[in-house]
Amino acid sequence: MHMTRLLPLLLLPCLTACENTGASYMIDGNKDHSISVVREQRYFWGSAVAQKVVAARFPICQQRYDIADGKAGAGELELYEVNEVLYVLHQGNNWWGVGTEKCELQAFKTPPEKYGDLLGKFRFDNGTFKFVATKPATPPGK
After folding, report:
1. Within a domain: residue 128?
2. 1 occurs within a structural domain
3. pTM surpassing 0.85?
4. By the 8 A CB rule, do 119 and 72 touch?
5. Which domain of life is it from (predicted)?
6. Is residue 52 situated within a structural domain?
7. pLDDT truncated to tens, each residue of the chain (142 aa)?
8. Domain-embedded: residue 29
9. Phi-psi region of 40 (alpha: psi -120 to 50; beta: other; left: phi over 0)
10. DSSP characters over 13-35
11. What domain range includes position 45?
């Protein structure tokens, strides 16, 4: 077998080592109104993972923002609700306000005075990155 045919097979483990994942919090269970965190490891040899927040309220807006890098396979981002269109995202020393009324993001230099109730965390659970709610969602009609 020629070396050129083996090369793609030899490079395959390098590609599988990269993280490319995301998770969403659907506001009031509505897929058109959500906050998502997307993580992408650009290089298999590095531990840094580029993170983005996506604020969406269809059909009004959808916007993606870069936030501080995370670490591959690790990390937690807490999500707090201030009101039905204003949320706070927290990771380490970083705090961001996420508005879904116009799909905006604001970085805070210090923690905000009021950041609302903890809704849950974007985190790894059994090897899968997902949003884990603090309390189970109330079924519709209850």
Report:
1. yes
2. no
3. no
4. no
5. Bacteria
6. yes
7. 555 555 454 444 444 457 789 999 999 999 999 999 999 988 877 888 999 999 999 999 999 999 999 888 788 999 999 999 999 999 999 999 999 999 999 999 999 888 899 999 999 988 899 999 997 655 544 4
8. yes
9. beta
10. HHHHTS-EEEEEEEGGG-TTEEE
11. 18-132
